Each structure stands twice: as C-alpha cells, then as structure tokens.
Amino acid sequence: MKNLRSWLAFHEQAFKHSLSFLWRERWSTAMTVMVIAMALMLSSLFWVLTDNVSRLTADWQRSGHISLYLDASLSSADEMSLLERVQKTLGVGEATLKTPEQGLAALQTQEGMQDIMRYLPENPLPAVIDVTPAATLNSAAEIKQLYQTLQTYPHVEQAKLDMEWVSRLFAFLNVVSTLAHMLMLMLALAVVLIIGNTLRLIIQDRHEEMTVLRLVGACDAFIMRPFLYSGVCYGAMAALLAIICVDLFIFSLDSGINQLFASYQMHYTLSGMSFSQMCLLMILAITLGWLGARFSVMRYIRSSG
C-alpha cells in the first residue's frame, strides 16, 4: 500500500509540474494546441462527413429496390403466400405487394394516361412485389445474389434490379472510406511529429536540468514522466478544441445542406460528432500525445546515455 501511495505521489507531482510548465509557456502551448487541433479537426471532419454520407446512402439504397413481376394467373391467396415467402428470405429488409388494381390507379394519376386507359379492354398490369434489401447487405455482390435468389421463385415472371445505380453507390462509398482512412492515418502521424518536435525543443531548453537529475541518480522513468504528461495534455486540449470546431462547422454547414436537398424535394440533417466519436477522438489524441512525447524523450535519453 505504501508503494502504491508513493507511486501515485510521483505521478501527481509530475502532472502538476507539467501543468505548471504549460501554463508558464501558455502562448507557445496555445499555438501548439491549435496546430494539433487543426490536424485532428481535419481528420475528424472527414470522419463525420463520411459517416453522414453512409447514413444518407443507406436511404438511397432503398431506391435501388428489386421489383418482382408475378404471373397474371395467380390468385390473391397465392400472391400473399409468395409475399410471405419473400419477406422471410434472408437479406430482405422489406417487401410489399402492389396489386394490379393499385398499379392501374397509380398509372391513371399520371398526366395523359387516363385517356389511354379508356381504350384498354382489361388491366394489363401484373402484381408486383417491391423488395428493399436489408441494411446488412453492404456490397453490390450481396444485393445481386439476393436478386438472383428471388428471380428463381415460382410464379415470378420477371425480376428487375438497377445494378448500375447500386454499383456506383458502393463504389463511391468505398472511395470515400479509403480516402478517410488514409487521411486519418497521415494526420495521426502529423500529430505525433508535432508533439515530438515541440517536446524536443523543450528538452533542449531543459537540458541542464535533466543532466543534473541524471547525475543525482534519477531514473529514466522519473525524467520522462513530466514530458509524457505534457504530451497527454497537448493531445487532450487539442482534441477538445477539435471537437468544438467540428461541431461548429457542421452546424454552420447544416442550413446550406438543407436548402440544397430541399431543391430536390428531399430532407436531410447533418449530424455532428456522436458521444462515442468524441470519446474515441479524445483517447486517440491522448495516445498520440503520449507516443510523441515518449518518442522524443527516448531519443534524448539514448543520445545522452
């Protein structure tokens, strides 16, 4: 228990020493935090926008539904039986039956079609089952496999799927996701380098102090600890600033996005960072700060040892 109290006391002392130093150099600290926050903000903004695009395309995916045109000789009971079978098929999110009467009524509402319908001796439209793929189908290949399965069902005369639209949709998502991951990786490396370089300059200014500590027998962990806390503080403060900036940016962009979608008779609201995204960003920034500080201090210890 005594060892634990001593360990906690050392860490408390190192943390307070780190905060004291950051406060004394508050202008340089503020500049460093803002530079790191810019890197974190760019990666977080790309992350949030990619997440919004994914949510939006989940709705767009519903426009790429599968249409099953049924045999005209089917009775109403057989149509309902087939509908139930389709609804139970793995990969089907939603399936609805449109009867010939409903199809005809919808067609008659279109301009110029009422006069044409008067000359038809009977309703030429078949019953149609509209199928929306489940959200778990996240590739064009899986949707095409579902389409081929439904096409083989008895009494399905024809099936239709706009595969070109679905393929373009998922190709776009894959490109955006790849770009987001690459950008986040590069900016994470930038954060480590920024913090490492900042602490390298601090170490050079405190070279004499660290030399004295080594002469009196201080271990590497004791010398390293305040700098590690400095890196953690840089990361935490930068992450907090990045979260605020990202949410402000999304909020300012939301009205323009709503106007754009309104011109296409659509409605969509951008979402800011979720609580889980904020926590992940904070953890990532703290980890990167710790890594940058450790890398810089270890280089000094090896070069001076």
In short:
The protein has helices spanning 2-24, 26-60, 76-87, 100-108, 113-118, 140-151, 163-205, 207-215, 220-262, 275-304; strands spanning 66-70, 92-98, 128-133, 156-161. The chain is α+β, with helices and mostly antiparallel strands and 305 residues long.
Tell me the number of structural domains: 2
The low-pLDDT segments are: none
**DSSP strand (E) fraction?**
5-15%
Main β-sheet description: 4 strands, antiparallel
Shape: elongated
What is the H/E order?
HHEHEHHEHEHHHH
Question: Tally the helices: what do you get?
Answer: 10
What percent of the residues sit in helical stretches (DSSP H or I)? over 70%
Q: How large is the radius of gyration?
A: 31 Å
Strand order of the largest sheet: 2-3-1-4
Compute the average pLDDT: 76
Task: Please outline the helices and strands.
Layout: H1 2-24, H2 26-60, E1 66-70, H3 76-87, E2 92-98, H4 100-108, H5 113-118, E3 128-133, H6 140-151, E4 156-161, H7 163-205, H8 207-215, H9 220-262, H10 275-304
Antiparallel strand pairs: 1-3, 1-4, 2-3
Helix pairs in contact: 1-2, 1-9, 2-7, 2-9, 7-9, 7-10, 9-10
